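During the no-cost extension, the postdoctoral fellow (Dr. R.K.) reprocessed legacy sequence entries with the updated structure-token encoder. One reprocessed record is reproduced below for audit purposes.
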Amino acid sequence: MSVAAAPAAIVVENLAKRYRRAVPGYQLRTLKSALLDRSLVRDLAPGETITALDGVSFEVGRGEAFGLIGGNGSGKSTLLKVVAGILKPTSGRVAVSGRISALIELGAGFHPEISGRENVFINAAVLGLERAEVARRFDSIVEFAGLGDFIDEPVKNYSSGMYVRLGFAVAVHTDPDVLLVDEVLAVGDEAFAHKCLRRIEEHLGRGGTLLFVSHSLSLVEELCDRVLWLERGTPRLQGPPRRVIDAYRLAVAEEEGREHQAAREAGSAGEAGPSEALRWGSGEAEILRVRLLDGAGEERYHLQSGEAATIEITARAPRALDDFVFGVAIATPRGEMVWGTNTDLAGFAPRRFAGEATVRVRCPALRLAAGEYQLDVAVHARNGAPYDYRRRLLALTVTEPRPGVGTYSPEHRWESEGELDWEPPRE
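Re-encoded structure tokens follow.
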């Protein structure tokens, strides 16, 4: 006898959400036309709407953590609000099984003029708890939020972190079946964030469901069972966290590479501040183009740690030079030097450089740890006098299956012997 599968906790089918664009001349209909056509609002022309979500479909099972990633404006928060019932979809279907508790916007559901104590009772009642049940859990809520004597202060006097602590404390103490969490956790301090994550794990362990939005990709990967990547309101990819997050990082890196290329072609100084020069030198040699290539010779700015990589430099010397050095350096965005070398250190003796030439640095295995990096490239004299020095010229994103700490990721493996037993990691 077959057993029917349990219904999904969240079902979203072909969801669309459109907002009215504020356009000149927009006005409500007259009362007469409204009564005749049964609508106070005239029909919208195609250009009078903004599409926040379009064609979004997914299901989240009971006990599953489902993550939403994407850039700002991709529709993540709008989707959470539709699932929570705060917004009504323009079309499509949303079904949620069980009690929902949402932590979506800072201070949402709180009245600023009344105390935290009163807001706890009001907020919990809205989420479905009886007053007697709220009273029974009140001390636990205050202790979790860590507000102490502030609980009787008007919440308008709370910091953003206090808002988040109280909101999350109320949300998790209502025993929700479905918990919706937006980026607001980033507002709290690290200790409270750990406390929240432990409570989320407990929620999932009890069979609860989580819909989670965060720009912290490592946190999404650690916490979620599946991930949906939204781009401009439409689904781009859905699946296991590692596959979706790596694809998203690749797209971001490629976009940054295109922006850097466009900035170089336009002669832009990039993102430098007014006191930070990103290019300098005498002009006796000029760097025309720099590309990062993978092992197949394709231009890429997102690599797996250990992949082959080539830094290709195309430069020109308007007049013949017999003193020249090509150099490269990789640093973190904060300026921490990771690796650097040049042709002089490698033992190449310059003879003649005139016209256009291409120089390549080939790395059979670029073993950078997972993270973001930037590339400096230079042509200079042996005494260090710069002909053309380009700083922060390219951005590079590195990922690896099992991240470590630091900026170097040597090939390695763990072994053991003796009275020790463990389960090896799943590939």
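Helices lie at 31-37, 76-84, 116-126, 131-145, 160-172, 190-205, 217-223, 241-265. The radius of gyration is 28 Å. The remaining legacy entries will be reprocessed before the final report is submitted.
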